[in-house]
Design brief:
The protein is α+β, with helices and mostly antiparallel strands. It folds into three domains: 6-52, Helicase, Ruva Protein, domain 3; 59-110 and 160-201, Elongation factor Ts, dimerisation domain (Tetrahydropterin Synthase, Chain A); 117-159, GTP Cyclohydrolase I, Chain A, domain 1. The protein has a three-stranded antiparallel sheet with strand order 1-2-3. It is globular and about 55 Å long. Helix 2 (20-30) packs across helix 3 (34-52) and helix 6 (118-136) packs across helix 7. The chain is built from eight helices and three strands; from the N terminus they run αααββαααααβ. It has helices at 6-16, 20-30, 34-52, 83-86, 89-103, 118-136, 141-159, 177-188, and strands spanning 59-66, 72-80, 193-201.
Length: 205
């Protein structure tokens, strides 16, 4: 098994927020490749989160954020399993960070990709496919299809909350809302769910 330097373990921990032993094991498994180790930890974190996701999240908080110009306001509901975790500073801070992010993301419409209606996804894909066909010239249909699907992914990044990198990228090291949620779930050992949000902006219907 490959030897892992302490500085490499620390670097991985700084990037992922995972425990020291988890980071060391991931680096050993990846042969010292930091990027591969990050992916290993993400996969493992998602697997743990999936198991927790089967447990009911009946506690939580409603958090609000009003932008400094008083033109944008957000309300979010973030749930967990116990009142003890719901009242913790870390959990409330996460909910506040989600509200702040939504305030700075006018295009966001759904919490998760599963919530995107099939008809809206299909309609967007048809538009993107038509655009790819017009731009593609003599490109094979398979290539145009892949271009359209790639653009659909970018559209989902714009409208799905969990896919977005937090607007405060420096503070959160460029992590997505889903990565931040998964980290909190791992730290608390509870199912953490961003249930819903509402964004209000002056002049918008």
């Amino acid at each position: 098994m490959a030897e892992v330097a302490a500085r490499e373990v620390k670097a991985l921990r700084d990037r992922t927020g995972a425990g020291m032993m988890e980071c060391k094991a991931a680096l050993q498994e990846s042969g010292g490749d930091l990027d591969k180790a990050v992916e290993i930890l993400r996969v493992r974190g998602q697997a743990r989160a999936a198991k927790r996701g089967e447990r009911a999240a009946g506690e939580g908080v409603v958090q609000s954020y009003i932008h400094a110009n008083h033109q944008v306001g957000v309300i979010v509901e973030v749930d967990c399993e116990t009142d003890f975790v719901a009242r913790s500073d870390e959990f409330v801070s996460f909910a506040r960070d989600v509200a702040l992010h939504v305030a700075g993301s006018p295009g966001v419409r759904w919490v998760s990709e599963d919530e995107v209606p099939d008809d809206e996804r299909d309609a967007e894909l048809r538009v993107l496919a038509d655009q790819a066909a017009q731009e593609g010239g003599d490109k094979p249909e398979e290539v145009r299809r892949r271009i359209a699907e790639g653009r659909l992914g970018k559209w989902l990044d714009e409208v799905v909350l969990l896919r977005q990198a937090h607007v405060n990228a420096d503070r959160h090291d460029g992590k997505t809302i889903e990565e931040l949620r998964a980290e909190l779930s791992a730290k608390t050992g509870e199912n953490v769910v961003i249930r819903r949000f509402a964004r209000f902006a002056v002049g918008e219907a």
